[in-house]
Fold this protein.
Amino acid sequence: MSAEQGDASVERGRGASLAAAVGRRARVGGRGVRAGLTTTVERIIANAPRIPVRDLATLRAQFPGLGPEELADALVAGAVKGTSTVGAGIGAAAMLPVPPALPAELAAEIVGVAAVEFKLVAELHEVYGLRAPGGRRLRAAAYLASWADERGIDVAAPVTVNAALGVQLRRELRQKVLKRSFRNLPGLAPYMIGAVVGATTNRRETRKLAEKIRKDLRARQLTWEALPSLEPLPPG
């Protein structure tokens, strides 16, 4: 074997070793991302039934004199302020390269934003007279599915509510969290840059979510006069 052939063989060996190392890191990173997504989703699912949701009677008492659209506007404004605050607070961490798992700061932001937006989604269903049926956990699953799909639930079709439970819900939430992670990653920029970016991103995304949910709910809206009563939410 000539010297040139020997050098080429060594370079090929180095290239193969480098490719193998990159492949191993990619596989480890992929497992880390999946683990991070799973952990974040499980936290969101566990938190949802404990988030206080105001029923229509309570909302009307707290916002006297407002009609459905005005009341919905007020709820959206409050939620936008809430998610903006979460984004500004989290955006103090230093930017990281593409990580093997979701950074703790990003996961915390998504869980916090999910809580605010979940409450918004549930209360918008109250405002439009389309409360999800069932106890607290079933309603929470239905509203989580609504949050993930960015659509209102169809209370007249039990299948859509029952399908919100189990594997399907977790799959939809993982997709939602992954998409939100990519959008919120720039919010981890250092100093005040990240705070501004985080607040702006969350404000925009929460408004977009609210617009989609409200558009969907209006198509099936029940007027307050048509509702049988302003009963409080049933217990879990």
About this structure: Residues 18-30, 92-101 have pLDDT under 50 and may be disordered. The chain has one domain: 3-226. Residues 3-47 form the longest helix (45 residues). The two ends are 78 Å apart (CA to CA).
